[in-house]
Amino acid sequence: MVRPRVSTVGELRRAIADGTLRHRTVHEEVRENLIGKLRAGGPLFPGIIGYDDTVVPQLVNALLSRHNFILLGLRGQAKTRLLRALVTLLDDEIAVMPGCEINDDPLSPICAACRTHLATEGDHTPIAWLPRDARYVEKLATPDVTIADMVGDIDPIKAAKSGLQLSSELTMHYGLLPRANRGIFAINELPDLAGKIQVGLFNILQEGDVQIKGYPVRLPLDVLMAFTANPEDYTARGKIITPLKDRIGSEIRTHYPAARTDAMAITAQEAWLSRGQGLHTEVPAFVAEVVEEIAFQARQDRRIDKRSGVSQRLPISAMENVVSNAERRALMSREDHGVARVTDVYAALPSITGKFEMEYEGELKGAETVARDIIRSAVANVADGYLSHLETRQVIEWFDLGGSLQLGDTMSAADVLAHAQQVQGLVELTRSAGIPKNASPPLLAAGIDFVLEGLYAIKKISRSEDRGYHGSEGAVRRPKREVTLDDETPMPTAGGKKKYYN
Fold it and tell me: Which range of residues forms the domain containing residue 169?
């Protein structure tokens, strides 16, 4: 909507009286704009994936109820992004007193300076317009935050410069909360806030006002309060005191993506894959699935602390490293474009090992060993969906009969294809991974790599540093044959019967 040309308090009053402009509280503003979005249809919070049937409905209910709320969830569950998306529910801009630190309402100012200004100039008092992005204030809670930072304090320097008594209301120094007046105030990691600071939030959540130290003045603020917290932090670093929890209207639980497709969409949205300069790098679907499955496997691995969680930042960082390794290989091999392979995921270990906390068993084995096991489990899970219905016996027998194939993550596509031609039926299996017949050499090499890693992950073949891919341990090199009594000494079998083998 185009804002009418309103520049004074008198013009603002008339615009509100004739219905051209609306005058409402922040909670009313967010509620009515949300209702408009619900009626229009479409996504309420673009960029938030996987919460449409769980978190978003609960958040909508809280906002329709005009509640202050808290998002509870483990790290990497888009809590901060969800808070910042609330800005889209604010009006494009609102009228404020020009130069006011707390965005005072021109029709009913609460600070002493603005009241004096309005009393002096009346309807001729000029107004300013504040865009909605400036109405969102966010604070990361840390143990060193003071009540002065959050609410405010006496400012002796302001008093000295202005020649005012310290008891004057004009010597107030406003904290972050009053500066968020007529907007949204978000506090991240609420348990990290000291208990006495949390007590300072009681009044704003219940009565809607704050009192700055040393002044018998209560400021009736108009603000929507939102918080985030990690449930694990309640015992690790602090807790949300019970009276404060009681005053928070709604408690909303976030979660990790429930489906691999949602997780892949998040990673594709957040990871830096379009590099702009350099050569083009392609990520096949099976590689993207493996990267995402790593997080799913890690979240259920007994060696990893489930209370700390495995952030969605793990597959995002890993995917960026996978693409970088593919990019590096293509540049070294003088190829015109790069294609990510499953073996590139192992090259991305530095972006994985720091993303989870170990239990005792995991600490004994080491982060890198655990990460390699998880990658293998992820490859097995994905490969099972591609290879389980195919006839792979011909390829497996080639390895079981003594064949071996040494491939590396830096090997060019041409070299991979040359080696793969030795294994009858191997190239044909790449069709199951969606590799077309006329695929480019780098894409075909990625398919071959996936098939081999898949067979290794599901324990059909083995892999070692010195031999590369080879037959499974204990594989039968030649079939045993049954012989007659004249050939060898009889060997006893179960049930007392005798069979003879050479």
Answer: 9-253
